Amino acid sequence: MTDHSESNLRKRIGLLGGSFNPAHRGHRLISQHALERLRLDEVWWIVSPQNPLKGTADMSDFAERIDSARTVANDRRIRISNIENELGTVYTADTLAALKKHHPKARFVWLMGADNLLQISQWKNWEKIFRIVPIAIFPRPSYSKKALAGVAAQRFARYRIDENQADRLAVMQPPAWAVLDIKPDAISATRIRAGRSAVKI
């Protein structure tokens, strides 16, 4: 569980949300790049009890996914959060609004891959997300170009900042977003689960 106490109020904190089904090196890689490039103090992995856009058939138990995240993170600056479970929030916009309310002086940045930028327009109140916190986008193989041509990127195109200003993203007034040019990692939770299934056969 992440400590959501008053001591976090003035920190620069990256928020990486997801099912973490399971957590993997790609999550850690994104987080470590964010810590360096965005000059963050911490990154919180917000483990979702249930992603409303995903089915439950191959979803591991919530406690197992929390444990998986703790094991994979292996970095004192990466903290594992069950805040959605505590708050009872389902949608990212609601979770971010609650965090901002509880920590009005914290400098949050939402971290997500280009695959999520491509589909974020399907999320509930997705435009609100852009207006609550700055956003950092990380490349994903086969998604990045399509994502930048997608609904969300086009809608908020004028708020995109140059990558060389990314170290200031956490203190910028949203909407503000940047695409970080890092070497993408092709690994995904889907591939890991597929590999596990193949082993069982």
How would you describe the overall organization of this protein?
By secondary structure, the chain is α/β, with parallel strands linked by helices. The chain has a single domain (6-200), classed as 3-Layer(aba) Sandwich (Rossmann fold), CATH 3.40.50. Helices cover 38% and strands 15% of the residues. It is built from nine helices and six strands; from the N terminus they run E-H-E-H-E-H-H-E-H-H-E-H-H-E-H. It has a six-stranded parallel beta sheet with strand order 3-2-1-4-5-6. The longest helix is centred in the first third of the chain and has 13 residues, at 25-37. It starts with 11 loop residues before the first strand and ends with a helix. Residues 192-201 have low confidence and may be disordered.
Short account of what is shown:
By secondary structure, the protein is α/β, with parallel strands linked by helices.
Integer count of domains: 1
Fraction of residues in β-strands: 15-25%
Return the string of H and E elements: EHEHEHHEHHEHHEH
CATH fold-type name: Rossmann fold
Number of strands: 6
What's the overall geometry?
A: globular
Helix content: 25-40%
Please render the helix and strand layout as text.
Elements: E1 12-18, H1 25-37, E2 42-47, H2 62-73, E3 78-81, H3 83-87, H4 92-102, E4 107-113, H5 114-119, H6 126-132, E5 135-138, H7 144-148, H8 151-155, E6 177-179, H9 189-200
Parallel strand pairs: 1-2, 1-4, 2-3, 4-5, 5-6
Helix pairs in contact: 4-6
